[in-house]
Write a structure and sequence with these properties.
The protein has six helices and two strands; from the N terminus they run H-H-H-H-H-H-E-E. The mean pLDDT is about 85. Strands 1-2 form a two-stranded antiparallel sheet. The chain is mainly alpha-helical. Helix 3 runs parallel beside helix 6. The chain is elongated.
Amino acid sequence: MPFLTIPELRTKAPKSFIDILVGMDEEDIKEVILDQIDIMRTNLGSYYDVEEIFSQEGNQRSRTVLTYLKSLVYYQMMERRKPGGMDNGAYDEAMKWLEEVSTGKRKADLPKKKVDTNGDGVPDAEVPF
């Protein structure tokens, strides 16, 4: 199961967004989701175990990551329909959170990335902030 599914995008979404979902090819929507997950992985990967984060399913997933991922996906899909014509407050908030987490300015309640410190090939210590 993917980290975020198309039906989950419909939660708390305005009718205009639902209309976009209905009108778009499912593969295009999945591509937008994967693109935005990649952006999140890039930003979170310095300090957090992105393999563990994005392999979680159901209630094991971080609600914070899901919330910001939905904001990023929502923004990108709306931009495809009406470039430059929407309020991007939620998108800006998501990107600010990612920036702060990626630089260590803010810590997230996510699995920490580990490194091998004793040379035995097994990650044994969290990456320091």
